[in-house]
Design brief:
Elements lengths: L1 H6 L5 E8 L10 H10 L4 H8 L2 H13 L1 H4 L2 E4 L3 H13 L5 E4 L6 H9 L5 E4 L14 E4 L6 H9 L12 E8 L10 H7 L21 H12 L14 E10 L4 E9 L3 H10 L12 H11 L10 H12 L5 E4 H5 L3 H10 L4 H14 L1 H6 L4 H17 L9 H4 L18 H9 L15 E3 L9 E4 L4 E4 L10 H16 L7 H7 L6 H9 L12 H12 L14 H8 L21
Parallel strand pairs: 1-6, 2-4, 2-5, 3-4, 5-6, 10-12
Antiparallel strand pairs: 7-8, 7-9, 11-12
Length: about 600
């Protein structure tokens, strides 16, 4: 639980603070704003933009930090939108906090700004949902939630940025500061919510599936698609299948000291209206020098009058018109086009047709020449395109490598039925397993990765030994591992595997992940207990001795290596899952009689 992890020093002790701004943005909300709130359950971009432009509120945020600077220390600020992030960063500097900067997905140097903050060169970093997951800066002591939200997952992710404890290279205490405006129709979730849900049981994970061919899509577009799927539309019943992402506009835009790649996603109901709008302003001279919110909103009403939700955001219309006025080269890529050069599908075709290197090069050149969208997505960098196809080809080949057969000494200790429960008074605490994994310094030389709650699953699972959920940082292990029949080194290996997912959020099971996985070593206690099972590395054993034996044990399940094939592997968890008695049939002659259908 969170309490246990806090006591162990893995999580910081949280201190929540709510600052009432006494600012009533609701008074300025239009009928359109209220409709957006009713349909989506969240504030619309216009409301967030007005909130970000509120100078007294911004000064209050900065003053709160300046007055408590020593206590708050390294701080992440979550802003309402990009303009708000830029404005707040400048206000912090004006307030004497010179070591401040902001990041969002449009800045090409965001990675460098994040590095500076992680390395202690910045005291405050302002962002727009960019640092909610996959970001690791243990030094963070404080989080400022300067944007109101009802999103449960977003609040949890924001709060989680500051919860690393001393044992995870973080702090003893974390300060979670929210700024509460005056609302009557909008219930804001504060950091207290996130602390409550960290003790709630995780949702049941979906069973793991086989390999799925994925098309890499820009993260900006995924966030928009996720927002659509999360909407709770009422009135006009527009389902996911009736309104889906169709594609995106993409262009490079020059600013005073930077060139940024811009993206605007379009849903299928918006395609015609957006084309008509851009055609009406095909002459850059007709586009106003300053496209205001009022102008952009009126164009949305004009060109999308008969379009159901979601309507295009006025800020996206403004961005496209500004790009047209600057005569940027705007390209449109549909998701269907993107699938035509999906690297995993191309790699599969290369293998199916047994292409040699020359044939492969000619084939990829043909795809590049025939599909202009391929060049757009890869920014005219054909080398990157070929390298990605090559990585997918290697992944498909590696998937065919057979695992080594289980050694007799390993298969001999696999239980002949569902693993036994511990005797009364005995158990295998997860905290104890965690200590064992962390006792091997080479596992996590830079410190333990950030996790939230760690627990056993509520029931035995058919197809997975554990999982790490990036949304709320929860880690769970299959309770079948909590048994005297399962060697400690096996349970430690599964826990180590899931901790790797926490440390490497974008790796999946790629080559880097597998290399780290091979570095697994059992703890001293696990090695001692393994000797009781007559498992011990001999002189000259490979570095991944314990990883291989753990894999063998898990793959063997409770079946002996000499069992006839094939068998129904649901028998491994049938008893625990369905509370039925499971009998092991050892005589293969039971399969000899003719099988007849029963009516």
């Amino acid at each position: 639980s969170r309490t246990t992890l806090t006591n162990l020093g893995i999580l910081a002790a949280p201190s929540t603070e709510t600052i009432k701004t006494e600012i009533n943005i609701e008074r300025e909300m239009t009928e359109e704003d209220l409709k957006h709130l009713e349909v989506y359950g969240e504030l619309g971009p216009q409301v967030l933009a007005r909130l970000g432009k509120n100078a007294p509120r911004n000064r209050l945020i900065v003053d709160q930090y300046v007055q408590n600077r020593e206590r708050y220390g390294p701080t992440i600020v979550f802003a309402a939108d990009t303009l708000h992030a830029q404005t707040l960063a400048q206000e912090f500097k004006n307030g004497g906090v010179e070591r401040t900067d902001y990041v969002d997905y449009s800045r090409r140097d965001s990675a460098e700004v994040i590095r500076k903050y992680s390395d202690g060169e910045l005291d405050v970093i302002v962002n727009v949902q960019m640092l909610t997951e996959g970001f690791d800066a243990p030094r963070t002591r404080t989080v400022f939630i300067a944007r109101p939200t009802r999103s449960q997952s977003l609040v949890v992710q924001m709060v989680g940025r500051a919860l690393r404890g001393k044992q995870a290279r973080g702090n003893d205490r974390a300060y979670l500061v929210s700024f509460l405006d005056t609302w009557t129709q909008y219930d804001v979730l504060g950091p207290e919510y996130a602390l409550d849900v960290t003790d709630a049981p995780p949702a049941e994970p979906s069973p793991e599936r086989g390999p799925v061919q994925l098309v890499p899509i820009p993260p900006e577009l995924l966030r928009d698609a996720y927002r659509l799927l999360q909407s709770t539309t009422r009135g006009l019943r527009i389902g996911v299948h009736a309104c889906t992402p169709h594609g995106w506009y993409r262009w490079e835009e020059e600013f005073e000291d930077d060139v940024q790649s811009r993206l605007v996603m379009i849903f299928d109901t918006q395609v015609d209206g957006m084309r008509e709008l851009l055609a009406a302003y095909s002459d850059p001279a007709k586009i106003p020098t300053v496209v205001t919110e009022a102008v952009a909103s009126s164009l949305v009403r004009e060109f999308f009058a008969d379009v159901p939700d979601p309507l295009p955001r006025w800020a996206d219309v403004k961005a496209l018109l500004d790009a047209k006025r600057k005569e940027c080269e705007i390209a449109y890529v549909s998701f269907d086009e993107k699938r035509s050069f999906d690297p995993s599908e191309l790699a599969q075709k290369i293998l199916d047709e047994r292409m040699d290197p020359v044939a492969e090069a000619e084939f990829l050149q043909g795809v590049w020449d025939a599909v202009p969208a391929c060049g757009i997505v890869y920014r005219q960098d054909q080398t990157s395109f070929r390298e990605e196809v090559g990585r997918e080809r290697t992944k498909l080949l590696n998937a065919k490598i057979a695992k080594p057969k289980a050694e007799a000494v390993v298969s001999a200790i696999v239980p002949s039925g569902p693993p036994r429960a511990w005797p009364a008074g005995s158990s295998r605490p997860l905290g104890e397993l965690l200590e064992g994994v962390l006792s091997v310094k080479r596992h996590f030389p830079s410190g333990m990765p950030t996790i939230g709650e760690m627990r056993w699953m509520t029931g035995a699972h058919r197809s997975m030994w554990g999982f790490f959920r990036h949304g709320d940082k929860r880690l769970a292990l299959n309770p079948l591992l909590d048994s005297p029949d399962v060697p400690r080194f096996v349970a430690e290996f599964v826990l180590y595997h899931e901790l790797l997912h926490a440390e490497m959020p974008s790796a999946g099971h790629n080559a880097d992940f597998r290399a780290r996985e091979r570095a697994f070593t059992a703890s001293a206690r696990a090695i001692e207990e393994a000797r009781e099972f007559k498992i011990a590395p001999a002189a000259g054993s490979t570095i991944d001795f314990w990883r291989v034996r753990a894999d063998m044990f898990l793959d063997t399940q409770y079946y002996k290596a000499s069992d006839p094939r094939s068998y129904d592997d649901t028998g491994w968890t049938l008893g625990p899952l369905f509370d039925v008695q499971t009998l092991r049939i050892k005589d293969p002659s039971i399969l000899d009689p003719e099988i007849r259908k029963l009516r």
